[in-house]
Each structure stands twice: as C-alpha cells, then as structure tokens.
Write a structure and sequence with these properties.
mainly alpha, 15 helices, 3 strands
C-alpha cells in the first residue's frame, strides 16, 4: 500500500488502529471491509446512512457471503463508524450473526505416524512435529528462533502469539533430538546474524525473514496427500490432534488450556466432544439392556421368620 493511494479517511483509520495496537493482519482486514462497503455505495463511507448499512448487510446475505466473512466485514465497518467517524448511531445498526459451532477435525495417531513417516525432508518432518508434538499454530512454528529453545528447562517459549500473549510449551526428548538434527542440516546463509536471533527456519530468499505460513501449509498438504489421508485436514488439525490425544491420555484439561494458550476453558473443552477414545469407552445403555439381569439376594422375611443367629 503506497502513501499516494491513501485517502485522508483511510489514513485517519490506520492511525486509529495503530494507536490501539491492532496487528497488521487485522488492519488489512478492516481496510478491505471498508473498501468493499465504499464500492457498494459508490461513494465515500462518510456519507453513509442507516439505510445504507441495512442495505449492505442484506446485500452480503443475498450474495452468499459466509457468516464468518459477514461478521468479519461488519467488524471492520463497526471500527470505522464507532472509532474513526464517531458515528455511534451507524455502529449500533451493525449486527453480528451467531456462527455455527463445528467440531475440530482430528487425525488419529496412526494417521499422524504416517504423515511424519512420508515427510519429504527432515525440514518438513521437524515443522510438522512441532505442530503435533507441541500444539503450535502455523505462525508460531515459522517464527521460532534459537533463543526460544530452552533445552535446560525442556521448554519452548512462544513470544507474543495470538492475543499478544507469551506462553511455554514442553520440549520432549524426541522433539529436541529432531531440532538438533535440523540445526546441523539447515542452510548456513545467516552467518551475519547473532546466533540467538537466527530463525530456525529461514527463508531461502533472505535469512532475515522466516519461511512463510503459506510455504508451511503447502508442505503439510503434500505430506497429507503422500500419506493417503483423505480427510479435509489442514495444518491446524495437528494442533487439534495434539489437544485431543492429550485428553485421551488423561492429561488434565487445565494443563492443556495452558499449553494451547486459550484464555477461556470453554475453548479447550470442545476437544472433549472429539476425543474418540474417551467417547468409545463409554458404555451404552443399549449394551446394558442386553446383559442378563443379576438376581437380587432374597431379603430375610419379617414377622418372626428371620433366620435365627447361631447360639
């Protein structure tokens, strides 16, 4: 985005978002939402009315925009009207739709084993192992540096991830061994960077940048295809599988919440619905019907017919 293309309204909105420390991705999304609204109006959003807001929301519904995208677009517009333009009357006209709650797609332990076995290179295997073995997000994986690996305490430090939060995750012996193998084999075109500040997975174009999440996603889907996994899995499915398999092995849900960096326990609790090992172990009441009834022991008769105690 060049400064020549920035209108005064957009510049003011960017300043408002920057002052509130919104991340770059969020700012881009809000700007796209406002551009879409301006294209619908065919004039500046400054001139928008309550009826324009209503018509735009109906337009999004009629054109088949998904609920998730509709809410995302309207969040950007709400920021414009509530913060930048101070038009609270228009901001109140914006509504959000409750999104359908879907269960996360989880891979079995056998599928994970196949996925890692067919990884095309050591680099791919290490990247995917971090997703499954530590429950990391794609952005967290690619932005790992040498300083984040603490082999003495057996932890990996995740700095300023989603929600601007730091957290620690465990560093298993298996994961530490893979990282050491990769450190010996990784490209050596970052000699001018202090060792602790070097990316674990530097870009081929510039050692000052890590690989992109798009590149990581491509490696994952190539491995999934090679492993014959036909589910519609994504890279994030490794994180889902990490949490679900920990639950199935009786790891306390509070520990899983801390490892994943979830603010609310309810977010972590959804993995209870997909922990197939726990679900399949529950005895169905239908099975109980098929079981023979146990005979109850006969009670001693009353009115003087009770069995006499031994003398």
């Amino acid at each position: 985005m060049t400064t020549m293309a920035i209108t005064p309204l957009r510049q003011r909105m960017i300043e408002d978002m920057s002052a509130r420390k919104l991340c770059v991705g969020t700012q881009r999304g809000h700007i796209r939402s406002c551009k879409r609204f301006a294209a619908f109006l065919k004039r500046s959003p400054i001139t928008a009315s309550l009826e324009d807001i209503r018509r735009f929301q109906l337009h999004l519904a009629d054109t088949g925009v998904s609920i998730c995208n509709r809410n995302r677009i309207m969040t950007g517009l709400r920021f414009l009207f509530r913060v930048t333009l101070r038009r609270l009357d228009l901001a109140e006209e914006i509504y959000h739709i409750r999104e359908p709650q879907k269960l996360p797609l989880v891979m079995s332990a056998d599928e994970i084993k196949r996925l890692l076995a067919v990884a095309s290179s050591l680099k791919t295997r290490v990247l995917l192992s971090l997703g499954y073995g530590c429950g990391l997000r794609a952005r967290e994986i690619v932005r790992l540096k040498v300083k984040h690996i603490d082999s003495a305490q057996k932890i990996i430090r995740i700095e300023q991830s989603k929600g601007r939060k730091d957290r620690n995750v465990m560093l298993s012996d298996e994961m530490l061994g893979l990282l050491r193998q990769w450190w010996k084999a990784r490209p050596r075109h970052d000699a001018g960077i202090p060792p602790q500040e070097r990316w674990l997975f530097p870009s081929r174009k510039s050692a000052r940048n890590p690989i992109t999440t798009r590149h990581l996603n491509r490696l994952f889907h190539e491995a999934a295809d090679a492993a014959g996994i036909r589910k519609h899995v994504t890279l994030h499915s490794l994180r889902h599988s990490f949490a679900t398999h920990l639950l199935e092995h009786d790891t306390h849900i509070r520990k899983i919440q801390l490892l994943l960096g979830h603010e609310k326990l309810e977010t972590t609790a959804r993995y209870l619905h997909v922990a197939t090992g726990m679900i399949s172990a529950v005895e169905s009441p239908l099975d109980r019907l098929a079981q023979p009834k146990r005979k109850r022991p006969r009670k001693a008769e009353k009115n003087g017919n009770e069995a006499q105690p031994p003398a």
